[in-house]
Amino acid sequence: MNAPTKEGRLADADSRVQVVRTACPHDCPDTCGMLVTVKDGVAVKIQGDPSMPFTEGTLCTKVAHYLERTYSPDRILHPMKRVGPKGSGAFERITWDEALDTIAARLQALAAENPESILPVSYAGTMGMAQYSSMDRRFFHKLGASLLDRTLCSTLGKFGLKATLGGSVGMDPERFDEAKLIILWGANPVVSNLHLWSRVQEAKRRGAKVIAIDPYRSLSAERCTQQIALLPGTDGALALALMHVLIGEDLVDHDYIAKYTVGFEQLAERVKQYTPQWAAKVCGITAAEIATLAREYASVKPAAIRLNYGMQRHAGGGIAARNIACLPALTGAWREAAGGIVLTTADFYNFDHAALERPDLLAGRRPRVINQAALGDALTAADPAVRAIIVYNTNSVAVCPDSEKVIAGFRREDLFTVVMDSFLTDTADYADIVLPATTQLEHHDVHKSYGHLYVLANNPAIAPVGESLPNSEVFRRLAARMGFDEPCFRDSDEDICRTALRSSSPRMKGIEWEDVKQAGWRRLAVPERFAPFAEGGFPTPSGKCEFHSALLEQQGVDPLPFFNPPAESVQSNPDLGRRYPLAFLSPPARNFLNSSFANLKRFRDLEGEPRLELHSADAAARGIADGDRVRVFNDRGSFALRARVNDKPRPGVVVAPSVWWKKHSSDGGNANNVTSQRTGDLGGGATFYDCLVEVERIEQAG
Length: 702
Hints:
- The protein is an alpha/beta fold.
- The protein has a 6-stranded mixed β-sheet, covered by helices on one side. It has a 6-stranded mixed β-sheet with strand order 24-26-25-28-23-27.
- A hairpin with a 2-residue loop joins strand 25 and strand 26.
- The longest helix is centred in the first third of the chain and has 18 residues, at 96-113.
- The radius of gyration is 25 Å and the shape is globular.
């Protein structure tokens, strides 16, 4: 096989066969390099790119079968308009001209009255800059539409790290195999971070101790050396008690603290109150577990923490992430490439997001901001009312909290709804117009990662299936119909990719689109053994790790670490806890990726059916046996699923791997029937795992 061409295609001995360099677009930290084999214009094989150093030629089981997604018989192949009641999924075929003319006319009329009545709703169904965050933002900025605060996944944790470390930055995940102690804090990399997990396994083979901090014995936790099964939403309390032990027993790196941190004296005084005995009661674990963990963390080097998003989906999740982020600076773990903490690496890239999204097109206007975590309220109670909604890269009916309110909003006859997708999702069933979107094999894009340090290119391997179009092209055509004549609306997808990579950051030096497109990937311009904060240099206002956060102080938030409890727990809300005594978690199902892949039969068959995992004590107290059908409920709603009594959750916790499409569930419900629109402490992030429920048997196992 020869060298790649300028188009990222590898020649084959058979002239009809080409191998195209692509990248996985989905909401996963691994952002895998891929190779797609194309014969006579048809993709016949997909595999990992063995030349890509982090992902090393392997793909998860979902993306390994991506061709089934691209060529699924359920693909939307042409534009459609609704012919039945909202929610019925009844549509008839129309032309692109009719679809775009209809949309443009409706948006123009609404914009003439009040452009804030128009709302874009998107998330991370694809994470490439061209299809996720560029032409679409330009279009809605020019229109003056309401702004969407995209808060569903990572907001709380990222704001917590920004207050402490200065941004979404951390240790290089590629070095986890060298660590001697690894803490997986709210992380299940077997399911959602496969290539980090391979490095964790290698470290364990070399003698490293691997500790899972998780209320649930996940696939990762059961393969770790130890699990600390704390109560949901109490991670911040555990971190405070660890700091109490580290400082109280003088297990800290005084030199690192003196040179590269601010606020240590104040922190030391603050954490005196947070004893292991106090935290043991809050967290539902033992004081001995806490003290032992602190001593091991201080003495075993290098020590790496993989912090993940599960632990921050609580009312106090932002402060909890901040508390945990203080730990590596106390022990000097940052001194080594295999030490420190990582939640996300996204801010190392310095893509030119202003040039991509063009907020200057707002021309001084300040549209209202709608929090995506409260979409149900926005669609049912906003003033002025949302009168048009454009949905792309997300499946709001399935994935947004308090979904009965979300559905009530989409059912409104006066709400003009456009959905751009590759499949008729739960949300698309409520659309007035459905537009067919391309999959990753059918368009250009450029990707950064939040789980490694490589830029990746995606080259189109095949022509768009049916009449599908990239998201970017839809917004170009709408912009033209609405008379938007700024040159940026004529940028091609490759122009957008070039724009993303224009950066003055030294880490982006030498990374240009033509080169990345040909090679498939390029590592950021950082040392091979990248220890970003070995000598300080944090992107905080002080340039140091901020135990005392000036940013939080400016916002009127306590600038020192503290415990911010969950809103819904038996301890923090005993009245609610008496009615709904079980903490409810809905982590990712192994065979789905958020709601992506959950419509494909292969992955539904592998996942089986919606299930609720319970501890045997909680099941026995309710007369529930393994295999019974049960109802999970609270004041927000209910849904039915199959009980699995397996003791994987700790007592008092129930777990429903998610997110199932409602149309593929027996009762039309899913986990988000019971989750809350409440937002958390920093940045307004969603609090999916801050949720109390009760469970009852509705049908005995046959």
